[in-house]
Amino acid sequence: MIESIQSTLSDFSQRDSRLHYCELDADSLERSQCVLSGTVLDASNLAEVIAELSARFPQITFDTHKVTFLSQTPPRWLTVGTNVTSVHAQPSWRAEQMTQALNGWMVEVLLEQESWAFVRQTNGYLGWMYRPYLTNETPPPATHLVYEPIGLLRAEPQPAGELVGRVMAGTAVAVTAVHDTWAQIHLTNGPTGWLSQSALCALEDLPQDEDGRRQTIIQTAHTLTGVPYLWGGCTAMGIDCSGFAQLTHRLAGIEIPRDADMQFSAGEPVEPPFKPGDLFFFGSDRGHRAISHVGIRLGGWLTIHSSRARNGVYIDNVQEAPHLRQIYVGARTFL
Predict the structure, then answer these.
(1) What is the pLDDT of residues 157-200, one digit of tens each?
(2) What percentage of the chain reaches a pLDDT higher than 70?
C-alpha cells in the first residue's frame, strides 16, 4: 500500500513545474495512518494532494505535521530591480530561460540558493531569478504603461538629453513630473529620467471596449515587427510566440497566461468568422507540448507571430504556409 501512495506522490511531483511544486514522501504507514514528509508550495497545494490521496485511498488518513511550505506567512516580496531579468528552470544561467520579468514586478521569494532565488510571480508562474537583480524597494503605484517597444530614458526632457537607461514595453511606471511633451519616471532600483509622453499610455486611458482592445492588440503587434525570436523572451530585445501574445494583450489592458498551452486552455474557443486579435494556436505530437505555438489573427488567415522559422515577428498566411497549416489546432480569444 505504501508503494502505491508513494507512486501517487511521485505523480504529483511531476506535474507542471511552471505552476506547482510538490516533493513529498510517504514516511510510514501504521494502523491506517500514513505520515507524509517533504515540501509543497503552499497550503492549497497540500490540500489538493490530500484530496486526491483520500479519494484514491479512502481507508487511509494522512498525517502532514512533517510537511513544510515554500510560501511563508506573511509572504516575502521582492521587486525586479533591473529593466528586465530572466526566469530560469534551474538556479543557473545555463538553465532554460522560461520567461522574463520587467522592472517593478513583484515576486514572492520561496527559496534562496547561493545567488539565486526561487520565486512565484503574481500570476503564479514559478522559476529561478538571479538574486542580485531583486530589490527590497517597493515601486510607487503605477500611473502609466510603457508602449514604445524600447523607451529611451534621458537625463533631461529633450531628445539630446544624455541616455541614462532603457525601459521595455509593458513596464508599469509612475509619472512623477511632466515638462512639455516629456514625462519623468523612476525605475525601481534604477535611474530617474525622462520619456517622451508618446511612449506612454495612462492606465486610465487603456481601452475599455472590445473593439478598442482588438485595435490596440493589432497596432502594438505591428510595432514589434522584426523583433528577433528568443525562447522565453517577453520584450522587444527578443520575444517568443506566447510572450508576444501576452505583451500585446497587456498593452490592451488584458492579462493572459504566459505560455501557449496555458493560453489555449484559458481562452474562450472561437469559430470562423474570426476577428482581428483572436489567437491562432498550433501544435503536434512532435512538439514539446501538445500546444506549442500561437499567433495573432489579423484578417482572413493572416497571422502576426514570433516564430523560430522566421527568427522573429513577421506576418504569415496560415493556409499558405505548410508548416503552419498542417499543425493548426484552433482559435481562442480573451476579448
Answers:
(1) 999 999 999 999 999 999 999 999 999 999 999 999 999 999 99
(2) 99
- Residue keyed to cell 510595432: 223
Beta bridge partners of 134: 80
**Nearest-CA neighbor of 146 among 247, 255, 33?**
247
User: What CA–CA distances, in Å, run from 201 to 26, 37, 63, 113, 239?
Assistant: 53, 49, 52, 38, 21
| pLDDT for residue 284 | 79
Residues 302, 303, 308, 311, CA torsion sign: positive
Q: How far apart are the first and last CA of the chain?
A: 49
Coil, helix or strand at residue 63: strand
144, 171 Cβ separation under 8 angstroms? no
Q: What CA–CA distance (Å, rounded) separates 100 from 247?
A: 11
Which of 96, 93, 128 shows the shortest CA–CA distance to 231?
A: 96
CA–CA separation, 297 and 261 (whole Å) = 17
pLDDT band at 287 (very low <50, low <70, confident <90, very high): low
DSSP character string of 154-199: ESSSSTTSPEEEEEETT-EE-EEEEETTEEEEE-TTS-EEEEEGGG
How far is residue 21's CA from residue 127's CA, in Å, rounded to a whole number? 11
| Closest of 87, 79, 88 to residue 173, by C-alpha | 79
| DSSP secondary structure letter of residue 326 | T
Place of cell 508548416: 323
A 10 A CB-CB count for 149 gives 20
Residue 264 has φ and ψ, to the nearest 5°, of -60, -40
Q: Which pLDDT band, with edges at 50, 70 and 90, does 1 fall under?
A: confident
Sign of CA dihedral 175, 179, 181, 187: negative
Could you tell me the three cell numbers for 217? 492588440
